[in-house]
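Suppose a classmate hands you a notebook page containing two proteins, each written out with its sequence and a corresponding row of structure tokens. How would you begin to make sense of it? This section walks through that situation. The first entry is reproduced here exactly as it would appear on such a page.
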Amino acid sequence: MILQEMLSNKQIKLINSLHSKKGRKENDLFLVEGEKSLLELVKSDFSVEFFVLAENQSDLLHELSLKSPAYIYTVSEEQLTKLSTLVTNQVGLAVVKQKQFNQFKINSPYTIVLDGIRDPGNLGTIIRICDWYGFKQLVLSEDCTEFYNPKVIISTMGSFSRIEFTYVDLPTFFKSHPEIKKIGAVLNGENIHTYSFPENAFIILGNESNGIREEIIDTLDEKITIPAFGEAESLNVSISTAIIADNLRRFILS
């Protein structure tokens, strides 16, 4: 359904509130921005409250109206940019109901676990990597950045819609899954190029600056390392995730 009326002050206030974590939590909503993410959104089972598109996006408006029953408002690019978290937004945004996986249950032999990832761009890229390699569940420590942060959602390029996630106290979570090996990515572990993964495992990656915290290191069953052949001091955590995911997928296929 398409509405040509102007957004109400109440709707504008709601959109602006979703720029903050507090507003997202209070309203149980989040923002999806950009054409790619909007198109991925309408292929998912997320519930859309309404769309706001730039007035010149007639093709996108038509496509969204065919795939979603949510209301679509059209505004000027100038007003859209004011509503968006992006520096410029020439396409559109959606106000979307958050999805919580309260019955989260490990359903795959291998699961990526993140310990203290703080950068939204890193988390968004990791979500996209998990989606690319077919790892559909993500476990995050309670101090990881928020999944529904707009910068995270933008960085996923739509992959957020295909990943189940849960925030946990990692030591407690690990104790509740004693049958699953804990494999940590560290600087002094076994070479991942020659490493044989166990039948099931949590693959743990740590904070951008400090790595996996000591209390988690002490619980690891095994450690793996991406070997360096040059002189770079370290790898970005999202790059490390991609390399590990690629090696893990090769191992699974072999």
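The notebook's second entry, a different protein, reads as follows.
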Amino acid sequence: MTPQRILSAARALFAAHGYRATSMQSIADRVGITKAALYYHFDSKEEILHQLTLPLLDELEGALAEAEAQGGPEEVRWRAIEGYVEVHLRHRQTLTMLVKDMTLLVQAPVGDRFRAAIALANNLVAGPGSGLEERVRACQVVAGLADPVVLFRDVPADVLKGHILAGARALLGEPLSEVRPRGPARGRKGGRPAALTEEQVARVRDMYAAGHGAEEIAAAFEVSRATVYRCIKN
């Protein structure tokens, strides 16, 4: 559990103070271990950054690949948009950390992978055979999917997702009725589950005891913070 505690502490510190302003000593202090013990688990701050960004990038690339494999261009477009938003909402703190220090977004390999993912998202939203107007509008839509995740960090994920998708529909000139639903909730890839199982509740409590914040846990299980607090209290 110590590596996960280190990553959780580093993520919070990077998001609050910035990557460059956070020292290895401050991460060790936050976890409650020595600096030598921290270096036993991670060789450098760069390695910690890599481990923090890897899940976000892997999931983002996976969501876009899944969208690209759909049938018609409209289905591809909306799967790409929804998948893009959902991944960023699950990794709010990591995204905040990256935006806090924008230079991280131009460094390889993080910057290269982000640019490639954004370019693919732009193409999927624009659709095949699109002209300049459609491509520009697609870029506007994709650019507007992640910023609200950072700017409105205290808004519950499901509420914010609805507003972001409504904004995308407005930019694309498509009414609500024309957007295909993702289907019934079935967990991480299909919307929020109606309730947590006993095993999930136990995992929520373990994560909270290990120092993970309620917002981070809520994003991991795709539930509200209120649900997390109920699990902790009961």
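A careful reader of the second entry would note: The first helix runs from residue 2 to 17.
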